[in-house]
Amino acid sequence: MRYLSITLLLSILIISPTAAEESSVPIIVGDHLQLFLNDGLIDRAREVRRVLHSPRPAEIAIERDRPWEDSTMYDPVVIKDGDRFRMWYRANFNKPPFYTAYAESADGIRWTKPSLGLVEFQGSKDNNIIWAGDHSQPGGQPTVWCVFKDDNPSARADEKYKATGLAAGRGLQGLVSPDGIHWKLLQSEKIVPAIGPFDTHSISMWDSVRRKYVVYTREFVNGVRHIRRTESDDFRKFPVPTLIKFLDDPPRPLEHLYKNAATPYYRRPDLMLMFPKRYLPDRTPDPKWPAPGVSDIVFMFSYDGLRFDRQFREAFLRPGHDPLNWHDRAIEVGPGLWPTGAGEMSLYYMEHYRSNSVRVRRGVLRTDGFVSVQAGATGGEIVTKRLTFTGNRLLMNYATSAAGTVRVEIQDADGQPISGFTLADCPEIYGDQIDHPITWAGQSDLSRLAGKSIRVKITLSDADLYSFRFSEQQ
């Protein structure tokens, strides 16, 4: 069944010219994708609002249908690896041994669980299990994995895939693989020391922008679940994690953030996204359910991996009408957000936790479709702060109604329209495009303005603007 997307509306953003006094130093945007996750690029706005969009629940990717899987099947990790999508997930957690299992897909939509012949289960190796562990016993093998492909140019070929897993006695151990299927312990020592809690899905990665190995894991602050972070040049040894920061002003009450699902955005790798599970332990819709609480998913982001913006307090993904998602830890987004078709991208989330129908579902978003600047039928506009760019054309991601429209004007640093690039020179833009080249009087060439301090004015009516970027047309 298809669900209506949930759109969360923020209050109208209006910044007066006097309140938007800015530095004379322009923002260097180069050719980087510009999103509207916050208002950092906007100088002035009239009759628009920023809107947080939710993923559309799509088809089930995998479900519990093997005897080694139980109702606690959880913690999916998805990687687009060349021409295929790959998923690692926790197959069970009710009793040891705890299995890590594997699935794959050609398109990110239809998934299979291949028989790998690696781990014996009830006398047979005809299964998709890649690892058996038990962190509850001294000397036991690590469990609750997060897998990543190591794009560090210095990574050894036999360690091209890496994982972190919950170690016996807490802390994290490292695992390595040449192919993502055949794994071994990196070393017997923990790579992240056993200080504080690690009973969660600890997310690890190679941060290609900051050129560090990074782990996001759990902490408690005054009894409330929180997120901490550690980084290292060497995957074999990390310092003790420290708390991430929130860009809240004034500070807001802490909420239980149960998982973090940290994911670099593939279209702008310096942007770190998080889709944490927000857990409310004092709400229990079904008193017969054996565990208290209820959960949804929230959205936050960071441009440095350390300080995260939680300005969107509303849910990114609600439990929905399904009663099996209205209990303690029922839904969880896993790390991994990838293009799966023209103009769309997908993330993957577990639902129906602790039930026999536990499964991983695909959630679909428009490309760059986290947040839009939206205007109603009466129209609105935004004007950017001073900026400089590289390239020779402007590409825009927008959607209008049949009657809606978008127009774009390039202004000088003082806000005066530049001849040849005025609103009057820009034809009515309408439709639904991801990378639409903007033209003025039939021309798109902006090369004479590259490197100069400019502003971009965008008018909208019955339209959403998701992103823009400057690029070089060959």
Bulk shape: elongated
In terms of per-residue confidence, which ranges show pLDDT below 50 for 5 or more consecutive residues?
Answer: 1-21
Individual helix count: 0
Approximately how much beta-strand content do the residues carry?
A: over 45%
Counting structural domains, the number is 2
Give the CATH H-level superfamily of the largest domain.
Answer: Glycosyl hydrolase domain, family 43
How far do the termini sit from each other?
44 Å
CATH architecture of the largest domain: 5 Propeller
CATH fold-type name of the largest domain = Tachylectin-2, Chain A
Average pLDDT metric: 93
| The first-level CATH class name of the largest domain | Mainly Beta
Query: Given the helix and strand composition, which structural class is it?
Result: mainly beta
Number of distinct beta strands: 36
Over all CA atoms, what is the radius of gyration?
24 Å
Summarize the main sheet.
9 strands, antiparallel
Helix share bin: under 10%
Summarize this entry quickly:
With 474 residues, this protein is mainly β. It has strands spanning 7-9, 13-15, 27-30, 34-35, 42-53, 56-63, 74-81, 84-90, 98-105, 111-112, 129-133, 143-149, 161-166, 172-177, 184-185, 203-207, 212-221, 224-232, 242-243, 245-246, 256-257, 263-265, 268-274, 277-280, 294-297, 300-302, 307-308, 332-341, 344-351, 359-366, 371-375, 380-384, 387-389, 393-412, 432-437, 454-471. It folds into 2 domains: 7-53 and 371-471, Jelly Rolls; 65-357, Tachylectin-2, Chain A, CATH 2.115.10.20.
